[in-house]
Every structure is written in structure tokens, then in C-alpha cells.
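QUALITY CONTROL LOG
STEP: pairwise intake check
CHECKER ROLE: data steward
CRITERIA: each record must contain a sequence immediately followed by its C-alpha cells, with no blank fields

ENTRY 1 OF 2
RESULT FIELD BELOW
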Amino acid sequence: MHWRRGTESGCRARRTGVQAGATQRCPPPPNQRQCVAAMSMAVFTLGTFPMLWLVGYLGGWVQRRWSKWARPVLPAIALLNAIVLGGMAWNWIAT
């Protein structure tokens, strides 16, 4: 049913006249949930993109400067970066 009609388990407060914020809250409308999800994805992108760009830029510079040494080491550094960022994302999503 529609979220404003008070028929969902968390929306009985509107129907009975009790303050909605006192004990229970109605779920947000679907378009608001989609907006929150899109904003979360945008904020996550803004938070991780600079570091990914920096790692890529510096990795290219190091590979050009010290190619013999960098060729076997840079993939491991990129993998470590992916693991750290994945862990940060998992922690952010799980909390």
C-alpha cells in the first residue's frame, strides 16, 4: 500500500494522530530513497576518485622513471590500494 496511508507496520502513528516522530517513523517515499542512494554513490565517488587518480598518475610516473624496478612492484601496490579502498567501502556500507 501507499506509504502515506499508514498501513505499513511503521506508519500507524499518522493514522492514530500520535506524533510521527515520537515513537515510530514512516518510511520515506520511493523517490526520496532513490535520491539518497544516488547522493551516496556520488559522495563515495568524490571520496575515492582523488586517491585512485593519484595512485594511477604516480604509478605511471614511477614506471617511466624506474621501469625495471617498478614493473613487478606496481601491480602489487595497485592490488593493495584496491583492497584498502574496498575495505573502506565495506566499512562505510556496513555501518
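ENTRY 2 OF 2
RESULT FIELD BELOW
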Amino acid sequence: MTDKSRNPFDFKYFVGIWPRDKRSAEQVVREIRDGAGSKPDNPDLDGTDAAHPAWWRGHDHGSGMMTRTVLALFDEPLDGPGVFGNPELELIRQKIRELRRKANGND
């Protein structure tokens, strides 16, 4: 089977699973292309088991980025310039620098 035959917009993709209902191949392809049947986004469900999958992907990406950023703060020079634009992240940066100074005896 070639990669072309795995294209979900190609009728060959449906060979072997067709027909499971009365819809035509063209109708199913159109529904897939247009997102019909996809889970609607409801912001009230964010952070719950019923949240849209994209919310969880964004959550995972943001958590990973934040973890890498905070870990990098332990390795940055203590006298390094710069600040974070986010006030909460800047506060974390300052606290980590303060802890590092105390740990090094530079109180």
C-alpha cells in the first residue's frame, strides 16, 4: 500500500471499511474535509475530561515550555541582564536567583 492510498480524502482510503452506513464516499470525504462531526470547542469544558483535544495539546505544550524555562533559570548567570515580560514569570526568576545567591553564600 502506498502513502497515496492512505489519503483520507481519497476514495481508496475507504476500501475495506465501506459501506458501514448509507452515506456516499463523496459525502464522507466532504464531512472529513469540513470538520463535520469533529468535537466542538466549549471553553467552559477547558481543563476537564470533556475538554477539546486542542486544549490539552496547548496545555501540554505550555507546561513543557514553562518547565524548560524554569529549569534554564537555574543555569543562567546570576548577574545576567534582562527580565521576562510576564510579571509572574519574572517573579519566579527573581526568587530562583535569590535562592541561588543564598545557596552560594552570596547573601
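INTAKE CHECK: passed for both entries
DESCRIPTIVE NOTE, ENTRY 2: The first helix runs from residue 25 to 34.
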